Input
Amino acid sequence: MSRRINLNRVSPEVYEAVVALNTAAAKDLDPDLAELIKIRASQMNHCAFCIDMHTHDARKRGMNEQKLTLLPAWQEAEGLYTEQEQAALALTEEMTDLTRKHVSDEVYDRAAAAFDERELGQVIAMALTINAWNRIGVTTRLRAPKR
Amino acid sequence: MTQTLNNTTTDRLKIYNTSPELYDAMMALSNASAKDIDPELGELIKIRASQINHCAFCLDMHMRDARKHGVSEQKLDVLAAWEEAGSLFSERERAALALTEAITELGNGHVADEVYARAAAVFSERELGQVIAMAVTINAWNRINVTIRLEPRASLK
Output
């Protein structure tokens, strides 16, 4: 495996802009919900560094281990996740997977019913921000630290 | 509810009003990504990602921008099948497009060594970083505009 560039070194303005985007997206968003969004998108995008980081962060926040374990199959474990969490996860999945289909009315409306407008905007912002990090992490092949 | 893209059913969030910091942060990211990258190459990256992500607003905007930058009509027509278009696209363009496609389609696999190495062979590290940044940034815009179902500019209808 070849070495890849360090984006923070070659394009520091870009890196800083993504950090600022992350800060903007995190405002007025429940940190536990944010971690679920980040982990689920990172799973779909196969970003090892991001999955490791955010699973670790969620655990540090005291998130229920079963919620982390079942996250890739959250639709089959509905009672474990709140309606807000389910609505946000469904929206995150459709936003992450734009190549196959668009963001359906069904999924959008479920989220719009569960969140106020400000919260919905921040859920969307967090989902696209972790998608940006995933793309950086995968493309530059960031390594998860040994824990 | 039916899935139509006309004005009457598009009533999704005005996210740039409800999350103004998001818009500012995205504009800053766009500006950072556009540095030290050929504008024509930047438009090809933006259009190809927007095609894959089915972002109507983004396609409309960047096709128009590309024409303003003087990108040939034939290149724009054939972009969705650039691999089959031989020398119509330069090696730098092809390397950037292959990388953009891989970055855009993470759900299907990672960014292969072959694709990465092809881009690393034709771009300096700084250029490669900016190509990656451009692909990441248009993917973010695509996700916003598809999710809020932003329509192509009304004045164009």
